Amino acid sequence: MGTLRVPDVPPSADQDCERLNKAFDGLGTDEEAIIWVLGSRNASQRRRIKDRYQQLYNESLIERLHSELSGDFAKAVILWTQDPPERDAKLAKDALKEKKKGIKHLEVIVEIACASSPHHLMAVRQAYCSLFDCSLEEDITSTVDMPLRKLLVGLVSSYRYDREVVDMVVAKSEAATLHEAIRTTQLDCDSVVWILCTRNVFQLKSTFDCYKQNYGNPIDQDIKGCVNRDLEALLKLVIWCIDSPEKHFAEVIGNSIIGLGTDEDSLTRAIVTRAEIDTMKIRGEYYNMYNTNLVNAVIGDTSGDYKNFLMALLGA
Amino acid sequence: MGTLRVPDVPPSADQDCERLNKAFDGLGTDEEAIIWVLGSRNASQRRRIKDRYQQLYNESLIERLHSELSGDFAKAVILWTQDPPERDAKLAKDALKEKKKGIKHLEVIVEIACASSPHHLMAVRQAYCSLFDCSLEEDITSTVDMPLRKLLVGLVSSYRYDREVVDMVVAKSEAATLHEAIRTTQLDCDSVVWILCTRNVFQLKSTFDCYKQNYGNPIDQDIKGCVNRDLEALLKLVIWCIDSPEKHFAEVIGNSIIGLGTDEDSLTRAIVTRAEIDTMKIRGEYYNMYNTNLVNAVIGDTSGDYKNFLMALLGA
């Protein structure tokens, strides 16, 4: 369950556009009005507002937001206003452009592939092709090094069955396959890739449960230290995004605000992409992990319009 | 270009349904009328007829066809009347159920993955999940043996960019990768799978051209005898389906009618699945390959309503 609060009887798209246009008008911008409108509309309402805005004012709403707003507030509002598949395709492209070491910048690709619906992943792949004249898989193949490449290509190519059908015999046998791969440190072998990239999420959760039952430790713990450090981190990420996305996103938010400075891009991404999905669960998990309230933690690390916008999405 | 002939001003779906219902009525069935209606309607018209038939007569058109028709004629008409993604999902499922040796039964899966549009492949994967409660990839992984499994999973998971964008540097470098894989008989290695499963069709055609230019032989010739015989056959099939699907389908039709007996299932599949895509080209290619006219060859090996229906689809 998300934390976005949509009015029971929302204004029409035309009324919202008018309100936004008024907020842009004249000297200065009425940021509060923008938060008030866009921060309480769901994806299909935002799409309608975007379409109507273009028709009414012959101008792209996204471009207008670009020119009116700035800094992290602008980034957050624009990310929120884009169509989710287009937004994620762009986030994936940006991730692949970064020539960083490690896997932190690839997190978003795993989130799209493992913590979104199969249908959304398909839509992201379509948007990626439309926007960038090549497939997401092609870009991964040409920019990500082995051994991460193999697993990532498999993950973004998946189209998992999306209902709860679990075969316990399969769960037991594939837990054994995973255990053997961990034991022999062959974690990028074909059979591991097939299990993680073709099975439905419910089946995989049962496989991970079986693993713990039969071999003593949670699988993400056993992976530690047994392979290439980046592959280890990627696999842990995949397992978390499948098994309990709320744990993963609570950690993303925690890492982005705890310690010196704030990683606003990660904080924004986690809240914007999950506000309509599971921010309620993420708030609970955050409390379990850090023994403190997520909303207060975000308030403590952000300010101004940016803070107010995140609060709107967090239903605070 | 297909050979299906649709009237400039087709009757309404209601009129077509009425005509079909009359053809089913009373003792015996008016097969000619069924051919006349369904054999000259495109996919979206057939979908509308199917929907309206259900509404008007509270009965599935497909089931009615099942009970009215028989033999190869029934199979062909029903295959033609199903929604293409559902039809192909069922063909793929049937293929995976067959516990045959070799790769002939897997042909249809390669056709769906390599000789259809990326959008159609996605729709087939969606239909497969809806119909069979698991993903196509899962079924391939659990029923097809190595080394075919790896390439097939990659192929059906692809979502290729669908416009003509070709990078000649990539073509040259990937032709070299393929050549090296052939030289070392490592044709199921990851890099070969990535090239064949992520690149757009135009890019791959250029890569195959480059291969021939730089290494002397067409790539499908060089593959011969260098690996496992099934993998060799699968790779040749993939290359043909990407490079010149019309050659592949001309061969399917040729193999199904030349020699003793007729393989009606393959003949039906080739004509039904391509009648709206490229049967015109297939007819030309058939002439090149066998020095005889495809339509006459089909007439010589089929009879009755089945023959008449195929002729309608072949525009003869």
UniProtKB/TrEMBL annotation, chains A, B:
InterPro entries: Annexin, Annexin_repeat, Annexin_repeat_CS, Annexin_sf, AnnexinD_plant. GO terms for cellular component: cytoplasm; plasma membrane. Ca(2+) 1 binds at residues 24, 26, 28, 68, 261, 301-302. Keywords: Annexin, Calcium, Calcium/phospholipid-binding, Metal-binding, Repeat. Gene3D superfamilies: Annexin. GO terms for biological process: response to cold; response to heat; response to salt stress; response to water deprivation. SMART domains: ANX. GO terms for molecular function: calcium ion binding; calcium-dependent phospholipid binding; phosphatidylserine binding. Coiled coil: none annotated. It holds the Pfam family Annexin. The keyword Transmembrane helix does not apply. It comes from the Eukaryota. Ca(2+) 2 binds at residue 257. A pair of annexin repeats may form one binding site for calcium and phospholipid. Belongs to the annexin family. This is Annexin. It comes from Carpinus fangiana.
